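[SOLVED] Predicted holo structure with pyridoxal-5'-phosphate

Edit: marking solved, answer below. Original request kept for reference. I posted the sequence and ligand SMILES and asked for the 3D complex as structure tokens.
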Amino acid sequence: MEKKNIDWENLGFGYIQTDKRYVSNYKDGKWDEGALTDDANITMNECAGVLQYAQTVFEGMKAYTTEDGRIVTFRPDLNAARMVDSAKRLEMPVFPEDRFVDAVVQTVKANAAYVPPYGSGATLYIRPYMFGINPVIGVKPADEYQFRVFTTPVGPYFKGGAKPITICVSDFDRAAPHGTGHIKAGLNYAMSLHAIVTAHANGFDENMYLDSATRTKVEETGGANFIFVTKDNKIVTPHSNTILPSITRRSIMYVAEHYLGLEVEERDVYFDEVKDFAECGLCGTAAVISPVGKVVDHGKEICFPSGMEKMGPVTQKLYDTLTGIQMGHIEAPEGWLKVIR
Ligand SMILES: *Cc1c(COP(=O)(O)O)cnc(C)c1O
């Protein structure tokens, strides 16, 4: 198979249309068999549920080429399971988990020419999603849905090394207690846009959201979970049922404990203790871990000892181990890599 003529190293994070996408429709209480299609456009009624009341959930994952030339994805079964949780919370029918993984495999296979080569740092981003498609005007769940998977090649997240970022404590809330913070739904992103545009306008890279009930505990950013490293090398991550359960973060906690022999804790993290940590990072599929150098709380700065030049040493070890597993130079735990071809 010949790769597309793309300047992989200089790709950004934008949409580039690839050849095929997967579509399955839900109607009369069941999903059809699903198929790949060339058509990147969706035609729907002006009153479609997704357009009026934002009934839509999504997932994000990557396919990449390992050192020995295989195309793999990372723990797609967890994305499938998470989409089930998201769908249930928004009163949508679940797309069966085995079919989710199969749809991802089919879509990546059909776009194999767009999977960036090993060593380029680029990856094929995979976006499964589902939405209510029939007309809905009274507020209620749709009766008909569409599940789709498309892919788009994206460049290396860090060009020229991972530089630590500066984040600010947000005046906005991301998630309400007993709300939808724990599911991957478009609505959580729509309402975060004003907060991120405001943060950028004030010169910050990201928002740190605190728990909306008490504004005392660290939750997450708009699209990534926190990990902290204590001065005695313990890995700490906030526990909260309004945080989106990041697959990257769960994998990092496993790697810390089972590959690096570090102590790990998932617990309440009070904002007051952030100043005592040695390192801080943001975990998500896009960057794996982006190092945080500084947190600014209304003019008061917390500067982590790891500084603004490079990742802290423990964060770096976690990053190297997890990316080593993903790229196939370190043996993966059973079932973590799904080989596509
Ligand atoms: C997707 C997402 C993450 C990261 O999850 P991964 O499974 O690691 O990609 C973290 N926080 C939010 C709010 C998200 O939507």
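OP edit: The two ends are 11 Å apart (CA to CA). Thanks to everyone who chimed in.
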